[in-house]
Target: Sphingolipid delta(4)-desaturase DES1
Amino acid sequence: MGNRVAREDFEWVYTDQPHADRRKEILAKYPEIKSLMKPDPNLIWIVILMVLTQLAVLYLVKDLDWKWVIFWAYAFGSCINHSMTLAIHEVSHNSAFGHYRAMWNRWFGMFANLPIGVPYSISFKRYHMDHHRYLGADGIDVDIPTDFEGWFFCTTFRKFIWVVLQPLFYAFRPLFINPKPITYLEIINTVVQLTFDVIVYYVLGVKSLVYMLAASLLGLGLHPISGHFIAEHYMFLKGHETYSYYGPLNLLTFNVGYHNEHHDFPNIPGKNLPLVRKIAAEYYDNLPHYNSWIRVLYDFVMDDTISPYSRMKRQQKGKVDLD
Model:
């Protein structure tokens, strides 16, 4: 159904990612940006409030009809849970307690993980650090789709299904591209999460558990916020690897839309990324960017020049240091 995408491979490039050089240049010109590299204590209170909110909703939905459980999972819970994954993204960069209290961030990430229903926080950090260090690197960066995804999801209908199933691809892709040995923190994350899920089931019932899991699955699939998965690095314009988004949904996503700014300065919390753009405006204002994640999703599905193959990919040069 729909035209088949003509692209049959990734966009292979033979240059380094642009972010390190731009960071060096910006810091030389605007050294005051270093003052923005500090923890965001407000993140702690926001995450606690979000967890408490979802706990309250788990109680409120326990006796609803199934249709309302699914309705509220998509209409409300999906926004909270997707936002929480981006809070975990912030915590993975030690933005809650700082680099000197790195383990505090790991424990806090497990706490933030609770309403999502699936153990995620610790593994995400391990792979996300690779994404920053080795952006687009073949066999390392698991943000890049597999060859199967690029080959199979190549028509309008199949791309739509791919968008719906994005959370599953993100969950299982690392096992095929860059499997890593399990760490003790991942085991703890899993035990804590499964214990919480069992408590939800026995105390509140199956509807609360389904609400929680459905909120994550629906919120990370066909959802306006999920436009950021595609907007960040899919090559809508040839030669441009990273794109920012400056629309209103940044308010719900810890400014993850400021993605060029984030890759240039991963140690700056999302709260301060608009200041990076303001200070170094000449570096960002002329870069391609988006104002609508919904439009990104629509264009990805309907444009027969774009597919999961629309990513810039490179062979990593030099020493690779994987966690």
Q: What stands out?
A: The longest strand covers residues 11-12. The chain has a mean pLDDT of 96. The radius of gyration is 20 Å.
